[in-house]
Write a structure and sequence with these properties.
With 346 residues, the protein is mostly helical. It contains 14 helices and no strands. It has one domain: MetI-like fold (Orthogonal Bundle), CATH 1.10.3720.10.
C-alpha cells in the first residue's frame, strides 16, 4: 500500500527545521558577541588572581587561545569548531566542554523527564476532574487552586520539602545524593508548578470543548460524560496543551539551575551555577548553545506533532493563522475528522 503524504507537509517541515537552525545560530552568535564585550579578561580568569603574569606571558597566552585575533576571526574559528563538536576546554578544570556537558546532561534529562511526567499526571487529573464534575463550586475550586501553586517560588518549595522529608522524616537524602531516592524531591519541586499550569490550561480547554455543539450531539446519542471527554473533547483541547508542554520543558531546564543547586543534584543547572560563579566562559558558552539546541528541538517536536493532532494546522497554522494552501486530500481529511467529531459515535 502506497502512503501519500500531503504536499503541504514537506514545506511545513522544512520551514520549521529552518527556524530551528536559525535559532541555534542566533544563540551562538549573540553569546559570542556578549562574551567578547565582557570587561573581564579570560586569560586572567584562567590563571587566577593569585598569579601576576608579565605582559609577555599574557600576550603569549592570548595568542595561544586566539584572543589576539579580530572578533570576526575569533567568531568564525569558534563557529567552525562548534560545527565539528569542539566547544573548547573549561578554564577551571581544563576538561573539554563537551565532556562536561555530556556528564551533566543525563541527570538533568532524568530530572526533567520525571518532573514533567509527574506534573502531567497531576495536572491532567485536576483538569479531568474539573471538566467531569457537575458541581460548579467544585469546578471553580479545582480551577482556582492551581493558581496558588503557580505563585510558589521553586527554591522555597524545595527548602520546605527538604526540611519536611529529609531533616524531619529522614525519608530522602538531603543533598548531593545519587539514584532514585535523591531524584524524588527535586522532581516533585519542579512538578508542582508544572502540574498547576497544565491543570489550568487543560481544564479550561476541556470545559470549553464539552460545551461545543459536537459534544451536545454526542450526549444526545447516548454517549456518557467520560466518553465525551475522552473521545471528543480531549483531542480538541490538546493543541494549547501541547504548546504549554513545550514551554514547560524550557521552563524546567531554566528552573533546574535553582533546584539542582538547592538539592545538590549534579546536572546542567548546577554546572551553570558553577560556571557563572567562576566565570568559566567556555562552559557558559557551551551551556547557552546546549539550551538553544534543546529549545529548538522541543519547539520542532511540538510543531511536528501539531499536524498529527489536527491536520488543519497545514492550512491555518497551529495558532489559527492563515497558512499555505493544503491539497484537497488534506482538506478532505480535516473535514472528515471534524465531521466525525461533531457526529459522535457512529
Amino acid at each position: 500500500m502506497t502512503v501519500h503524504l500531503p504536499s503541504g507537509l514537506p514545506r511545513y517541515l522544512l520551514r520549521r527545521l529552518g527556524q530551528a537552525v536559525f535559532v541555534i545560530w542566533a544563540a551562538f552568535t549573540v553569546t559570542s558577541l556578549l562574551l567578547y564585550l565582557l570587561p573581564s579578561d579570560p586569560v586572567q580568569i584562567m590563571i587566577g588572581p593569585q598569579v601576576r603574569p608579565t605582559p609577555g606571558q599574557l600576550a603569549r597566552l592570548r595568542h595561544e587561545y586566539g584572543l589576539d585575533q579580530p572578533v570576526v576571526v575569533q567568531y568564525l574559528t569558534h563557529l567552525g569548531r562548534a560545527l565539528q563538536g569542539d566547544l573548547g576546554r573549561s578554564i577551571q578544570s581544563g576538561v573539554p566542554v563537551v565532556t562536561e556537558l555530556t556528564r551533566a546532561l543525563p541527570n538533568t534529562l532524568a530530572l526533567t523527564g520525571c518532573s514533567l511526567g509527574l506534573g502531567t499526571l497531576l495536572g491532567g487529573a485536576v483538569a479531568w476532574s474539573a471538566a467531569y464534575t457537575s458541581s460548579p463550586r467544585l469546578r471553580a475550586t479545582l480551577l482556582a487552586v492551581p493558581s496558588l501553586f503557580n505563585s510558589v517560588p521553586t527554591f522555597w518549595l524545595g527548602l520546605v520539602l527538604m526540611q519536611l522529608f529529609s531533616f524531619t522524616l529522614r525519608a530522602f537524602p538531603t543533598s548531593g545524593g545519587t539514584g532514585f531516592a535523591a531524584l524524588v524531591l527535586p522532581a516533585v519541586t519542579l512538578a508542582v508548578p508544572s502540574a498547576a499550569f497544565i491543570g489550568q490550561i487543560l481544564g479550561a480547554e476541556l470545559i470549553k470543548a464539552v460545551r461545543e455543539p459536537y459534544a451536545d450531539t454526542a450526549r444526545a446519542k447516548g454517549a456518557s460524560r467520560s466518553r465525551v471527554l475522552w473521545g471528543h473533547a480531549l483531542r480538541n483541547a490538546m493543541m494549547p496543551t501541547l504548546t504549554v508542554l513545550g514551554l514547560l520543558v524550557g521552563w524546567q531546564l531554566s528552573g533546574s539551575v535553582v533546584v539542582e543547586t538547592v538539592f545538590g543534584w549534579d546536572g546542567i543547572g548546577r554546572l551553570t551555577e558553577e560556571a557563572v560563579r567562576t566565570q568559566d566562559i567556555p562552559i557558559v558558552q557551551g551551556l547557552v548553545l546546549l539550551a538553544a539546541v534543546c529549545l529548538a528541538l522541543i519547539n520542532l517536536t511540538v510543531d511536528l506533532v501539531y499536524p498529527l493532532v489536527d491536520p488543519r494546522v497545514l492550512v491555518r497554522g497551529p495558532a489559527g493563522r492563515p497558512g499555505e494552501r493544503a491539497p484537497a486530500r488534506v482538506l478532505d481529511g480535516a473535514s472528515s475528522a471534524a465531521t466525525m467529531a461533531s457526529a459522535g459515535d457512529r
